[in-house]
Amino acid sequence: MTREIFGEYHHQYFRDVIPDIGHTPSQERALNQNQRFSNNLFDNFLNRGQQQVSLPKRAASASCPERNGRYPVPNQCDAYIECIDGVAEEKLCPEGLFYNPEARFNYPCGYPIDVDCTGRPNLQPANPSEDCPHQYGYFKIGDHQRCGQFMNCVDGRGYVFDCPEGLAFSPETYRCDWPDQVPDCDAEAFLGFRCPETVKNSFFLDVENRLYRSNTDCHHYYICVNGRPRLQNCGIGNAFNELIDACDAAENVTGW
Fold it and tell me: Which of 1, 111, 176, 222 is the most buried (most CB within 10 A)?
């Protein structure tokens, strides 16, 4: 249960913040840049010997079901009992993290989105800092019109990250997602585009997904999914061509 194991958990979790939804090249570059920065700041934090991630010890209140293992504390989601050679010791996760009996890594504490606290409703008191509502976690920044940033809190220090272009951070899933999939994000205000109403025709079925060029950048276009916009980028050297309703070499696109 070392700080290196917690670092491995954090690095894997940050990779999972961005779902695999078919990133454009610019989205991939933003993701890679954010991931490198997150990993570097967390590695630097872990390497500061005087501030290693540690679990405060508490007096044991239960015996060990087995000689070695970790077990949840009844009624408390961020505490657990660690048994070593039959000796029980009750421990607390760092504030903002919960004990996860199903942890994928050897480190036993995880982010709330990964932990089922059913039957363990109690938590240690929140320990907010100037930057963060909790010592550890991922938190939304901005309002319903500015949905594209989130804060990663590590030991009470907040670090701001941008979701890849066109994506919004969901506090419900701890993921960057299409803005129309984030309940508290106004996709139209966030992207600056509203899908035109489709004209119903009794002879043709309605088309759910429609493409529209951006009026501000020839490299961008919008796909309207069930009437809600999603921003796309054709990438370097390409532009959206309305004649073929697809990305094309920039020299083939006129009207700009």
Answer: 176
Q: DSSP 3-state assignment of 157?
A: strand
Q: What is the pLDDT of residues 163-213, one digit of tens each?
A: 999 999 999 999 999 999 999 999 999 999 999 987 555 444 455 578 999
Expressed as residue numbers, the domain containing 169 is 137-191
- Does the residue 240 lie in any domain? yes
